[in-house]
Amino acid sequence: MSDLEESWDLEIGEPAAEAELADAEVVEVAEELAPASEEELAPAEAAAELDPIEQLRIDVMSELGDWYVVHTYSGHERKVRANLEQRITNYHMEDKIFRVEVPMEEVIEIHNTVPKKVQRVRIPGYVLVCMDLDESSWRVVKETPAVTGFVGDQYNPVPLQIDEVVEMLTPGVLAAAQAAGVETAVAAPEPEINVDFEIGEVVTVTDGPFAELNAEISEIMPETQKLKVLVTIFERETPVELSFDQVQKADA
């Protein structure tokens, strides 16, 4: 091959090599710009989700007004919330009264030996209200049926601290998160167990060697669903351990 032919081949080969290199760079840039897969996005999205308690704190802090405690008739807390929310609408007070909350908690109630998770009012007789306090907003709250007044100075109550509000509302938020399968940084406390027996109460034994005898409850063990009772045998009180389902109320 002559020197002229070799030179011609080199000049043709160099542009081809440069074109291949340019194509490779385009592919690499395209891969970098391509959207991430769902698997790659999932951890980032999960990291962006706030812990429910942190979200609660942000929500509480973002409210425009201050938080106050309102005293109600015990057992009327949720009704007071509904009535007050209706009054806020009726009196066009949405720009002064922003939020009404009844602190809740989850407990386990045992009736007829059957355990059941229920939501109950955490602080009977109290409702939290977030508001800008002035004479008009004070009157709308104070004159709500079943409200007896503000806690503290009736006419110039002291607002709660943010930490106090978060602490009151946390059990309800944790219970809701747990029910929804949402993980939280703080574990939900074990629900309190309520039973419809009382120490000193007389019950009737329904099963076992002491069936049909009356017994007095001396100890209640809700975790194991058992009772310690005193059964009178030959004019002597004998302690006996029974399950909840082995007794019934004496007047049942």
Question: Any overview of this molecule?
Answer:
It is a single chain. This protein is an alpha+beta fold and 252 residues long. The chain has two domains: 52-193, Alpha-Beta Plaits; 197-249, Roll (SH3 type barrels). Helix content is 37%, strand content 29%. It contains six helices and twelve strands. It has helices at 3-33, 38-48, 52-62, 77-90, 135-142, 162-179; strands at residues 66-72, 97-101, 104-111, 114-121, 126-131, 147-150, 192-195, 202-205, 214-221, 226-233, 236-243, 247-249. β10 and β11 form a beta hairpin.
Brief digest:
It is built from six helices and twelve strands. It is α+β, with helices and mostly antiparallel strands and 252 residues long. The protein starts with a helix and ends with a strand.
Describe the secondary-structure layout.
Elements: H1 3-33, H2 38-48, H3 52-62, E1 66-72, H4 77-90, E2 97-101, E3 104-111, E4 114-121, E5 126-131, H5 135-142, E6 147-150, H6 162-179, E7 192-195, E8 202-205, E9 214-221, E10 226-233, E11 236-243, E12 247-249
Parallel strand pairs: 3-7
Antiparallel strand pairs: 1-5, 1-6, 2-5, 3-4, 8-9, 8-12, 9-10, 10-11
Helix pairs in contact: 3-6
GO biological process, one term: regulation of DNA-templated transcription elongation
Domain KOW: 196-223
Family: Belongs to the NusG family.
